[in-house]
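Q: Here's a chain of 333 amino acids. Please give me its 3D structure as tokens.
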Amino acid sequence: MLYEFNQRHRGVDFSENSSAMQCTPYQSLLKQLFIALFVSLVLSFLVSGKGTAAEHVIQLTAEETRDDGFGNKLLAYKMINHKRDGVDITSRYSPNATIPGPTIELTEGDTVKISILNAIPDSDVPIHGISRQVSIHVHGVHYDILSDGTLKVINKLFDEGAGAGLEETYAVYEYKWNVAAGTAGTWAYHDHNFETHNGAEHRGLFGAIIVNPIGAPSYAKEYVLYLGDDAFWGMEINGSSKKQSQHGPNPILSAKEDTQVRFHLIALGTDIHKFKLNGYLWFDPGTHDLINQVAIGPLEKHVFAVKAKHSAYYEDHNRSNKLLGMRGKFNVQ
């Protein structure tokens, strides 16, 4: 009653039988058209959003690879199969096990089923009290506890990997990821189970996912560089073909002059790094500030884009890392 009283005293009668609440045929038609247009826009948005989301089915193995120079075998992930909405895109990856492991490009809204097969020799023979499983533990995207890729001592359920574990054993273990809205970024994945609850990242079992927002710009080249304690480990991705190449320590990266390229830096190990791309400036993400170097610590990330103008060296200006030879060539032609 108080509301009605106030409205009447403003000179407008909003009671059920008032003329102010009655619509002319013309107004009624406009109202119907507005509702129809609104519903159409909502449906169009929903269909468009659904159309951009993709389902990825991925199979990886973990294998032994080259000697590290000290009599120890390094370990590496290898892409066996990758289908996006049923289309086979495995050819974009190396046919070999590589360090770093395959970089998996995704878009917000995608879903992923990714499985791991343990192909490390003798890993099916358990050592008392030691896990011989390999796993995939990912950062950044969403998943439930069954897809954490950790040992029971961490997840409180069971050992979530492939091969001989401390308790349950799986020949192949599958994880499910939800690449939800808000997960855009560059994120690491790595083993969390082999031999210890920290896994074998330090022996080569690491890789990355790049999650792009819908409608993100494209780049002529993408470079993924992992900053270890004594070397860059990296790879190059062709922006058109998505072919991945130049794997290994301190790789030579290539670009055509005046093309837009993007660098993805992920720090591993325990050191604090000072990355510099000599002769280049770039925007510090989230700001309008131009920088020419960046400090980056363990498991931190830094992503930036530049126009390729001239050849240069990328390097770690942290003194101890620089003395260890953390330097590579950015070759522009």
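Q: Can you summarize the key feature?
A: DSSP finds four helices and 21 strands in the chain.
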